[in-house]
Each structure stands twice: as C-alpha cells, then as structure tokens.
Amino acid sequence: MAKRLYVVLLIPVLVALSLGAFRVKRSIDTLQDAEDAVRVAQLVQTANKYASDVINERDVSVVPLLKGKRSDSAIAKARAITDQDRKDFDSAVANMPRSTRLLKRVAAVRTGEKALTELREDAFTAKLPGVQTEEKYHLIQHPLMELSNELGFGSSNQASFGRTLYALSLTQAAESLTRAIGQRVLVQDRDDLADGELDVQLATFRSYAYLQQVALQEFAGAGTSEDMDRLDQAMDTARKKGESLAAESAQEAEDAGKPFVAPPPLEEMIQRISSGATAEKLAAEGITPESFFTASTLAFDAYRRVEVQLSDTALAKAEEISDDARRDALVNSVVVVAAVVLAFLLAMWVARSMTGSMRRLRGAALDIAQTQLPALVEKLSQPRPHPVNTRVAPIPIDTRDEIGEVARAFDQVHREAVQLAAEQALLRGNVSAIFTSLSRRSEALVEGQLHLLTDLEKNEADPDQLENLFRLDHLATRMRRNGENLLVLAGEEPRHRWDQPMPLIDTVRAAASEVEQYERVQISGIPETLVHGRAATDLVHLLAELLENATAFSSPRSPVRVTAAQLPDGRAMVEIHDEGVGLTPQDFAELNRKLADPPTVDAAISRRMGLFVVGRLAERHGIRVQLRPARAGYGAIALVMLPYTTLAEEGAPAAYSNL
C-alpha cells in the first residue's frame, strides 16, 4: 500500500489533464459568451441611437405639426434619420445572440414599431392629440431603451454599465418629454383647450421634470465617478454653448435694431412654464418655443453624448474581453495538448495502482460532499422543512486496511454533520412554532379586545371616555401588528388578506393608522394607483413598520412626510421622509444589505426587528426597499419601489376602506 501511495503522487499529472480539458472547454464557452456579449453591445449601441432619434423626431415635429406644416423639412430630416436607425437596428438584430430574453425584448420593440407609419400621419391632430402622440412614440422608444439592461458579461464593472446606461436613457427620455410638452404648452392656443386640459398638461410636464431628477439620482447611484465627470463636462459644455447662442442672438437683434430678452437657464424655464404663466408673459421673460427648444435640446444632446460614450465603452470592454478569451482559449489548448502528451508518457511508467475500494471511496465521498449532504442541509434549512430521512448509509467498503478506516471515519463525519443539521432544523422549527403559537394566541386576544372596544365605543357618549377608548383601540391595533411580526419571523403568512385591489392611498392611510404617533404623518401626492389584494395586507404592514421607525427616530415635533409617484415603466415608488439625526454611510449600507437579503432569525434580530420584518415582506412580493440620506444632511428617506406585479390595472374593482 505504501508503494502504491508513493506512486499516487504522480496522479496529479493525470488530474491536471482532466482539469485542462475542462479548462479548454470552459475557455471555448467563455469565448462564445464574450463574442455574444460583443454582439449584444453592438445591438444596445444601435438601439440607443434609434431610441434617441425616435423621440427627437417627435420633439422636432411638435411646433411644425401644431402649426399645420406637415411637410416641414425638419420633420422629413428627422424621420429619415429614424428610418436609417431602424435599418441599422434590423442589421444588429440579425447578428445578435438568439437568447430568449433578447428575442422577447426585440419582440416588444417590433410591437411598438408597427404603429410608426400611422403615428406619423396622425401625430398632433384631432385624431391623435398631443398626449396620445407622445405615448405612442414612448411605446417605440421605451423597449429600445430597456435593451441596455442586457449588458453585463465579463468584468467586475461591466454589469453596472447596463444599469447606468438605462438610468441615463431614462433621464434623456424624461428631458425629451418635458421638451415636447413644453413646446406644446407654449405654442397651442389655450382658448381652444377643454376645461382642465391645461392643468393636466402642466401636471404631466412637472411629473416628467421630477422623473428626470429621479433618473439622475439613479444614474449617480449606478455610475462611477468617471461617469459623473463625463455628465458634468457634457452639461457644462451645453451651458457654455447656450450662453454663446444667446450672445449671438443678442448681437443679431442689436444689429437689426430689434429688442432682445436673454432667456433664463433651462431650470428656470421649466419652473416658469410649470407655473402656468401665459405665453405672452413667458415671451416677455425670453421664454419662447424656440428658446425653450434650444435650451432643452442642448441638455438632450449632452445626455446623448454621455450615452454614446457609455455604450462605446461597454462595446470596447466587451471586445477586450473577447480578445482575452480568444487568447486564453488558444493558450489553454496548447497547454492541454502538451499535458496530454506528457501524461501519456508518464502513464506508460505508472501501473494501475488504485483499487476498486479506492474508486468506490472517492465516488462515495464526492457524492456525499457534493450531492447528498448539501441537498440534505438545503432541505433542512428551509423555513418549513419537509420530512427528510436523516439515516446515513455507510460507504460500501468493508476492508480493514487504511482505505476501510478512512471510509468508517468519513461515515462518522457524515453522521455528525447530518445530526447537527437535523438538530438545527428542529430548533428552527420549534422557534417558528413558538412564534406562530404566540402570535395566534395574542391575535385572538387582540381581536377580542378590538371587538369589545368597538362595542364600548358605540355605546359611549362621554367625549373624554370615548377618546380614551379610541386610544385603547389604536394601541390594540399596534399590538396586533407586533403579533403579526412574529408570524413573519416564523415564515407564516397572515390568515386574512384582501380579495380585491386596494387604492395605494388607502394602504398608506391604513399603515399610518397603525403607528403610535400617527398624527405626525403627512400624506400628499399619492397617485390613483391600485395595489393587488394579495399584496395589500403585507404592504400596509411594511409601510407601518417604516413609518414607526421614522417617527421613533426623529424629533416628536417634526413631521414624517409620505409621497408617491407612478413611474412610466409601470412601477410605483413610495417615499417616506423623516427629520431624524441621520445615519452614517456605513449604517445605510449595512441596513440596505439586510433589507435586500434578510438574515436568518437569531438573537441579533431583536435589535432591528422592524427592518427585518420589512425585508421579509419585501422579499415575499419582489418589493425593493432602500434607505438613503436626506438631502439636508440629516434625516433619512425610505424608498419603496413597487413592481408592476403588485399593482392592479386601472378599472379593476377596488376595496375601499373607511380610513
């Protein structure tokens, strides 16, 4: 046996052969993936140009079409550029990898493209008014913009390119919409508008201006410092060019003997247009359709330049990775061939030394370590583990030599590992059962208390006593929520859920009513969005925990503000602002990590049970919760991003509460 073990020292050479073959295959697979990544980057590059030019076509067409100049040369030129972009995109699609995700995204683009010819004929007419025209163009542009999310192969920062590029494209799209709507507000005759239509246009104009700021924040969070420097330089160049154009216009007006009013910066233009001032007043301040279009176009082009730089960088990175993968595949192939020759020569000198027992031991050990034990631990680690057979089958080796002794030792290690996993699973199950039992018992008591308080409130005429009863009722409601926290810790779901969609405003109000200092909660700007009944109960619980945290860790005299917005991609975002003492960046990072990936229940959970419950509830419905520092330097902002899967379509029957 000793001699055989000495000979086994030469076996790593043979093992290197198999590993080398695997390495070559992996290198070839990596090369294929890298080349696919290059084609995806080329597709994204053409898609971004297509998306940018199609919304630019819309914006350029606003004033001529509203004035009835349907054959204007600017429109024809913009449409020609879009048509060429479409051909380039078709070529990139023909060369792209045929993955399911990419085919699905391209199919969404094709769906929007089908309406382009009809859209051009009816744009900004009575048949297709301004808002509908803008939405139709958005149906073409948005799927193109979403292709940026398919970037992400190869390097540590490559995955962030897609998110960064998407955020910048969203910023550009919001800028484009404000440009289109702003021109329409400045050009159209307000006497021809229906009642309330101007207010709707201005509200839409403001919402897209706000969306642009949100998208810029997302870009800042996803991008690198170099990306922010690129954007700052592009915007600075745009400002200087705007000042130069204004100076040229002033000189031309002076030479012609005409009055000239220098237009204000773009941000002030947006604020003045949002105020609803008349076109005459705005013109007196230098805000005309031409000046607004020029200023907005400079910002639009600045975003586009940075977008092109990002897409070019992504393509260059992908090509660099592809070249490295091609070189690695070639080198690995040469090395493996040399190793095969060397291993063959060595094999001629090495006899077959490994017995059947050693092969069975190796196979059984690998099967236990890589398959049986991980699968068993995974099953026992579930919140509700299914019955699992924890009996350990011994390795089928009966020899009394060193191999047999290793087999028996491995069997003992296997038994100890299985026993430890089973004990931990039993402990977790007992803790969850205790949580569930305590919650169910307290739930019954609280429900009984609430029914009793309701009866007492109905029969109480004394205002002071009635106020005390209301306070007891509110306290019991909070006790019920704390009991439901135990169900969340135990992995259980509430017994009762809404069976119909609930308005988002009602979910926010319901959450505020469960907070001790509910009078400090200020709710405003909640859109008319419906929440699916299956998610409404957990969303109320989630928001209540965040509001409780906001009121508990801020001054009793400061308000806690709750706002929300409906995003163009179908999602909704709820924001909770408090004015607390604030947290360090390390605290924010740690809390956001726990919110994104709730840890296993242990003693440390008791210190931040509310945030743990929020993380569990968010994970249940795919909701994204993130804490950010407030702009003022103190306090915090809790962002709750609701995916479209938690929202109901408009027109669905809603369950309205009496809050």
Automatic annotation (TrEMBL):
Protein localization: Membrane
EC no.? 2.7.13.3
Q: Which residues form the HAMP domain?
A: 352-422
Give TM segment ranges.
Answer: 329-351
What is the reaction catalyzed? ATP + protein L-histidine = ADP + protein N-phospho-L-histidine
Per UniProt, the keywords (alphabetical) are: ATP-binding, Kinase, Membrane, Nucleotide-binding, Phosphoprotein, Transferase, Transmembrane, Transmembrane helix, Two-component regulatory system
In terms of superkingdom, the source organism counts as Bacteria
Start and end residues of each Histidine kinase/HSP90-like ATPase domain: 534-646
Taken from the record, one Pfam family name reads HATPase_c
Region entry Disordered, spans:
237-261
Name the major location: membrane
Q: What is this protein called?
A: histidine kinase
Give the originating organism.
Streptomyces justiciae
